[in-house]
Predict the 3D structure of the following.
Amino acid sequence: MTTLEKTELRKDTIKKLKNIPDAERKQIEDGLKYHLVESDLWKQSDIIGITISNGFEWNTKPIIETAWQEGKTVCVPKCLPKQRKMEFYQINTYDQLEVVYYQLLEPIPEETVKMEKNMIDLLVVPGLLFDKNGYRIGFGGGYYDRFLEDYRNKTVSIASASQIVEELPAESYDLPIERIITENGILR
């Protein structure tokens, strides 16, 4: 798949996600959260790595708040654009976040604890499109592709059924996500 084709797929998917009516969005998000927190992956994990959602993305705050209520440790990514990598930091409150480029919320390193990647039991990997083999098209920065290269613990993504396609071409560096949670249940 060419870069241009991926760019077009990203654009089309973002447009579709932005146009989901609020009531339908809420219903999908409730299903995503339910199936995630009821999964064995979630129940067997103490430290959860997850992004702070932004804009049209599926709202991750109810998932984060459930993790806190259940006594789980939550860590969120901080992108380091110069090194083209990301690191995760434990947060206990949203006050430990700051707005960075593209209006993203990221942890304030001075107010949080850095979490080594092998300590994260379950990583919730964002993406725009997924196939039934667990391959995904992300947002185009490659941060998760690089992070996953030597990450050895459990991975999951949350996506509406409309974001699942039969097959996406995989590049040599692409790594599949173990499970994909939709509003209808768990794939793979």
